[in-house]
Amino acid sequence: MSALAGIITEKCPKCGKGKVFAKKGNPLLFQMPRMNERCPVCSHKFEKEPGYFFGSMFVSYAVTVGEMIIFFLLAHLFIESFVTIVVLIGLLSILLSTFNFRLSRMIWIYMFDGKGRQV
Ligand SMILES: [Zn+2]
Description:
Number of domains: 1
Number of strands: 2
Bound molecules: zinc ion
Structural class: mainly alpha
């Protein structure tokens, strides 16, 4: 399995089979995603050390800003009111929050804990 497929399907970077997240979370129900501590298939430990995922906040920032820019450019074609677009971007960032949380951690995991690395 390629890294990209692993990131999208949220699978363990070592075996490519186990799920990284036990719960996907739901922003409308105020539920945050919950990670498995270890891979349920190969028992690979996801959080190497305390604060391991601190850096994924920077990935999350980049992902979120990218989404906002894309949304702004698209919305600008259809909506004239700048305030409306900004409000919609706010709503979008709430709706995508759990998705971005999972995506940024998956990118982080595959950046520093990808297959073939000796840990
Ligand atoms: Zn695994």
